[in-house]
Amino acid sequence: MHGDRKEAGQRKRLLLLMLRHQHQLFAYIYTLVPHRDAAEDLLQETSVVICEKFDQFEPGTDFMAWACQIAYWEIRRTRQKHARSKVIFNQELLEKVSKTAREMTGELEHRHEMLARCLEKLPQRDREMILVRYEPGYGVKDAAERSGRTLQTAYKALSRIRKLLFDCVSHQLAIAIGEF
Amino acid sequence: MDIYERDNLELAVLCNALADDTITSDQRSRLLQYLDESAEARRFYVCFMAQEASLCGYASEMQTDPADQPDSGLHRTEAAGLSSRDDRTAPWSITKCADLKPLLVLIAIAVVFLPLFFFARTLYKSTQPVALDDPAKQPFAEPKDDGVAVLTQAIDVEWDQKSEPKMGATIPPGVLRLKSGLAWIEFYSGAAVLLEGPVELELISEDRCLCRNGRMRVVVPRAAQGFTVLSPEIKVVDRGTEFAVEVIPLIKTQVHVFNGKVELYPRDSKGESKNGIELLAGSGKEIKSLSGESFDLAADVNAFVSVEELKRQVDARTAQRANLWKQHKRDMNQDPRLVAFYSFEHDEEDERTLGSHRKPDQLLDGAIVGCEWSEGRWPGKDALEFKRPGDRVRVHIPGEYDSLTLAAWIRVDGLDRNYNSILMSDDFDLGEIHWQILRSGQLRFGLCYSLEPEDRVGDHDNYDSPLVWDLSQIGQWIHVAVVVDNQSGFVAHFANGRELSREPLANTMTLRIGYAQIGNWKKGVNPQAVRSFNGRIDELIIMGQALDDVEIFELFEQGKP
Questions:
Q1: For a 10 Å CB count at each end of chain A, is N or C smaller?
Q2: pTM to 2 decimals?
Q3: Which of A14, A29, A87 to mutate to test the interface with B (most CBs of B within 10 A)?
């Protein structure tokens, strides 16, 4: 009886932690494996391992650090399987980029939040472009068709919009305080 | 993150190519080379890719037609989850680890509890989008390197602009419009101007400004000689100590010299000393805008607010502040919900004690370790300065509470540690609390909700606010508060009287503080975990009930410097 309750507590904790950190974990994986489908598969596989090893996780310690570590080893373990990406890092570079990504966790979280506000500010046409481009199962070709652009123009537009968002996020980070 | 601005946009081009899968093998080699050789390139890459990941996430949430989705595991579960997103009563289900897909479905369903996603969700309702590339709507530049002056005094000021200058914060070049009140602005060159609203002044550089409208007095120490004030008609170059300028657009400009001397030149004259007119102390000049005629006048000290007058008003305001604060203390002491009130008053007879409102009862008094007494929100208000890793105030707050409100006036001077304690219970026992600031600049409230016998530290929930501190807030006094309400089941963070975030309580339980520390944490559990606060605190209030938004706002209003 007590054991069941403890297990239930465990699962609830795990759920909460995954809720909070899943998008960060995906960002970390995607940075090291820059291919969306491969990264999503890796996220699933990593989640399984996290689930299975959760009783090894020490409550109160840094969940992201622990989860990213697991993701890192999954990435290394399955390098051959996920060679779909056109850019694959060798061991040394994988470590360097991973270290950088880990150091920036806090800043990236803010950028993620601010991005939501910046998306809101995008002109309607640009926002639609983004939403179609990144919709699961869709891509640049669909975004180009839906917005009546040629493929080349669409690539250019996406570059432009990414820069707009990037700069907006950087600005917003600096003035976030002014809002209250 | 300057790479986008730099001439070398190649890295950005490469990242875009990677994101859209158009990258050639040459480009791939270049990208790998960049990442290998440059730490800054890696940082840019990480931000860029994280943005891509975020966009994937946000776009996924915006799916409105689950039937269209391709049959891929993760996507399907997300789509399924979305339709039940509004079902707040979806129960927490128990699953075994082997069943991962249902777990992900639950994650999607339970997404409703994550305020960030909620926030993203409410985003896409119709708003009045401000075009990102409209230069007129760009915010004030980042307060980093391009400041030319600092606002050091302000009395009853009302600004007429979107981004108001803050006390002590640097001001970059640009136009200031003061509707009313007095403002004392010190330029980096050393010169200072006393603005009297209504006035419009354009700051050009550390030793140059343009008065477009209104009255201002200029005080220039020897080292800042050469400080130049432009008006629509003329250029005034300081060669002495003190003068004043009044501009009525399209009508006239007047210059009065009170001390030392100045040189007047036509507005657009290049160089100096050729056609300059010297004006000595006691004299002045008026230049008519349209005709260009000029004539002499006597300097009129009374036409411009003096520095002494500003000082007088500052002192009067300080006295008024002190009185208001005395009233606030009285109100606090009479509030039946009060558990502890630390007013941070320096008692010279007992310097190492932080008195609580129950003095001479002394039960709640804090023991000061290391911290030095310093100045608080206004001259005359005391504060404790927390600088060294060992600085702390040890307190013991007994009692069990259904709800708690913690409120403090704090000034953060730096966020060097991952965790910067405001108030933390020593042992983090059941129901005990941690109130702290993260290195990221967010407030965090931690609550211990279970204590398994094997655990040294109980399981705890963390509730984080959005970003509160960045570079521009360092050194500013801010009112922070957190409300934990078991009855209604939420935790809410406040800053400067406004609610920042509100999250449901994951676990409800009786709250306790017990043995705790202000500005630090007992090194019980993890000897490496330094959690010391870096800055000043000058007030801490603990209430045994949940205050509402209006009351928190009032606390802020009563105490704002």
A1: N
A2: 0.51
A3: A87
